[in-house]
Amino acid sequence: MKHKLGDIDRINHIVDSIEKIEKILEGVSMEDFVTNYEKSLAVERLLLIIGEATNHISEETLYDEENSTPWKLIVGLRNLLSHEYFRVDNKTIFQVATKDIEAMKREILRIKNKLENNG
């Protein structure tokens, strides 16, 4: 049986995944991340979830005049992790998960707040 998830459900999946990434990477250096396959695989999986959820959020929800997040690149990362896994570079994954994710979190929380307040 298929379940139809709405935009707010997908947004909650993104927020949850970001919070898990933050917890996994708390106090972890790039060197530790690159050599710790459990952490790197967990973060890759969570980034894949973020990309998949992003890919299924309606454009009218995701894109507005205040948006500066490159959502298409996030979906592209999901495709890389899924289909071109052999090209994955853990240093790049660490960079995305520690630097780029901060702006993504701010933006997705802004969108979530807007949806919740505007019905």
Structure overview:
GO terms for molecular function: hydrolase activity; nucleotide binding; RNA nuclease activity. This is DUF86 domain-containing protein. Keywords: Hydrolase, Nuclease, Nucleotide-binding, Phosphoprotein, Toxin-antitoxin system. One of its GO terms (cellular component) is toxin-antitoxin complex. The protein is mostly helical and about 120 residues long. It has one domain (about 5-119). It is about 75% helix and about 0% strand. The chain contains 6 helices and no strands. α3 (about 35-55) crosses α5. The chain is globular and about 45 Å long. The two termini are about 30 Å apart.
Low-confidence stretches: none
User: If you average the pLDDT, what whole number results?
Assistant: 90
Strand count: 0
Largest sheet: none
Order of helices and strands: HHHHHH
Please state the CA-atom Rg, rounded to the nearest Å. Answer: 15 Å
The outline comes out as: globular
Keywords: Hydrolase, Nuclease, Nucleotide-binding, Phosphoprotein, Toxin-antitoxin system
GO molecular function, one term: RNA nuclease activity
Organism: Chryseobacterium taklimakanense
InterPro entries: HepT-like, HepT-like_sf, HepT_RNase_toxin
Structure at a glance:
The chain has helices at residues 7-25, 30-35, 37-55, 59-62, 71-83, 90-118.
